[in-house]
Amino acid sequence: MAINLKTPQDIEKMREAGRLAAEVLHMVAPYVKPGVTTEELDRICHDHIVQVQGAVPANVGYRGYPRATCISANNVICHGIPGDKVLKDGDIINIDVTVIKDGWHGDTSRMYYVGTPSVMARRLVEVTRQALFEGIRAVRPGATLGDVGHAIQTYAESERFSVVREYCGHGIGKVYHDEPQVLHYGRPGEGLVLQEGMTFTIEPMINEGARHTRVLPDGWTVVTRDRKLSAQWEHTVAVTADGFDILTRLPGDDNDAFL
Predict the structure, then answer these.
(1) Cα separation of 47 and 60, whole Å?
(2) pTM of this prediction?
């Protein structure tokens, strides 16, 4: 496994791409409301990336994918293709965006409430967000990817939710999906040992019910087999000399307040 370690200068370039990706998710938030289509949300994100940021939406054309974002609602785990689906009150959605700036990728996603969510939906979203940060807190030189996955799995399962195993985080930089693969479950002390200069995403997918998945006939959309809800949050992180650095956060973002 060849891991591309980044220089401090590289990481600053990734931070700029990450900031732009986070800005897209912040910008689109007011448009997430009942009655909007996922295709319209995607268009808003696409136009902002291209026309305002002067950047490139990495997803367009990636392995044949047709849109700038993935928008996954309710029982969709990941890779939902924006289309004519009209959002309704009580839905929960994930918007996942990757921006390329000066050849470097910034990849992040977050959850949104459409109107007023159910008690279960809100709890799932909040637990998934906390699970992401439990994983991030485990990042430091000398720790292992097993430590990261174990932190996520232990927390999510303690809240009686399940962790999707078929999809994972990934190395990132000038390459969109690079080594290593970052599993969201695992055993302490197992797996790749983390080093300063590694950059990768952590993006746990947590299900209300069982962890099992199914891919729809479009070849992209992944749903829960039991049709129960799923949630996901994602950040791109760098391993620093003494811990971690989140490269996809905005200053003052209250979603990161408990880090």
Answers:
(1) 12
(2) 0.96
